[in-house]
Each structure stands twice: as structure tokens, then as C-alpha cells.
Amino acid sequence: MKVRLLIPFIFLSFSGISQELVDCEKTFEYVYSKWEVIENMQYHSKKFERHIDQDDRAEFDFTISRHPYKVAGRMAEKGHYILYDPEVSEKEAMYISNGFPFTNLMLDIQGKIFRGLNHYTISDAGCEFIFGIIRREYKRMPESFQCSKVVREGNEEILIRAETDEFHWKEYNAQKGETVLSIASKLSVSAYLIIEKNDHIHTYDEDCGGKTFQVPSHYGRIVELFIDADHGMPMRIANYDEKGLYESFDYTDYRFNVKLDPAYFTVDYLDSLN
Predict the structure, then answer these.
(1) pTM score > 0.70 for this model?
(2) What mean pLDDT comes out for the span 88-99?
(3) Checking DSSP bridges between strand 155-163 and strand 234-241, what pairing results, if any?
(4) I need a labelling partner for 71 at 20 to 30 A (CA). Which of 2, 81, 96, 196 fits?
(5) 202: which DSSP letter?
(6) CA angle centred on 129, ends 40 and 51, rounded to 5°
(7) Cα–Cα distances in angstroms (integers) from residue 115 to residues 133, 177, 200, in the given order
(8) Could you read off the pLDDT of 156-174 as tens digits, one per residue?
């Protein structure tokens, strides 16, 4: 893989900020060591996603149990809650209404109603999904990555960054039973970018067997992951393709190992918060 890591670019992006290169392998090890002691966490998330028709921006408050994995997400603007408990259903989440449609709904987490064209779904919450993709990319081509200590918005962070000139589109012939999600997972690429590129592919979970379409060669032309230098959690993730920024996620207000009500991850408890 041909790599173009631009030190001047980083200094221009973070003007006046001192930098110190660090070992990427040790950075990943450090992050995982921090995650091992986290049983649950709460944080605020602000997303930007490029969509086919228009850009999408939204904010959420998440509470996540890691062992066992459960997610309670609150839509900051509307106040609706979303509860995902794979022990109840791996494929569905409960939509807990704070208004219209005035009823709680069990919805397919990959379906058009729940996910639509959102780049990710509720089962990807918790930062580990996208971090895992970046980790696999590093294992596959470590020479494309550069890690450095930075100070961003007054916070000491570690920037994990990769850039490639070889981002391109290639033809893919789908086999029976393959979906956009399964293909993206196999290739470690963005499922959304596949849908955006191909007019005859419309949903993440449709059977693409027999279809030929374009898939990206990498998850992004540029991938940036900012890690808090203290607690090891992502503070910002930004991914770019040949058009520019196609998604970013900013994380704030982390709380770790919070004493939660035993009934927290239940419909009745979350319903009582509305």
C-alpha cells in the first residue's frame, strides 16, 4: 500500500500544538488495557453522516453495559429512548416513545424504519465496533499508520491516523445470501459507502446474490481516531473518502463504572424517565 503521511498537514490542522510520535502497537495495547477495567459507561455522542439526499446530524446520550452487552440510547432532541438487549433479541431493539407514535415499538435494527441510511445501528454503539475496524486495518497494513500525542481543544489526546493514495472502487460479484452488511464486514469497508455508490442497492440487509456492484478498497482514504490520553476512550472519529468527510463522531461527558439501577436496561425503567 502506497502511503502518504503528511506531517505538515497535521501541523496545519493543529496550528501551534506540540506533537510527539508514539508507537502505534503500544497505543492499541494501551487502549485495550484501559477498556478491560470498564464494566459500563455513559457518554454524549454527536454525529455527522453524509447521506445520499442530505447530510444527517444528531446527538445521543448512551448508557452501555459491556458485560453483558446492553445499550440504552436517548435521542437528545426528541427524548425517545432505544433499548437494545441481545439476550432478548439480537435482531431487534425497543423504541420507547416520548411522543408520537405514542407507543413502544420493537423494530428490526437493520430495517428501513429503524436504521434507514444511518451508517451504523444500535448494536454498533460503544466505540468498539469502529475501533475494531481500525485495529484490523492496522494489523493488515501497519506501515500506513502514524500515531502521535496531540493537544486538541485543550485536551491531551493520541491521534491514530492513516492516509492512502490507493483508495479506489473495484467490482464485486455478490454470492447468494450475501448482504451489504456481510460484504462490508468481510472486506472491512463502510457499508454505507456501498449503498451510496450503487443505485441498484437500497438497504443494508437485502440479499445481493447475483448482483455486480462497486465496493471501496479501504474504509477511507483518510482515517482519524483521537483517543483520550488518560482514559483511553475515543474522543473523535473522522473518516474521509475521495469526496471528503463522509462521517464523524464526537464523544464527550464520559462516566465510567457508574452504579446503575438493576432495572436500568428494561422498558419499564426507561419509560419512567420520559
Answers:
(1) yes
(2) 93
(3) unpaired
(4) 196
(5) -
(6) 120
(7) 20, 20, 18
(8) 999 999 999 899 999 999 9
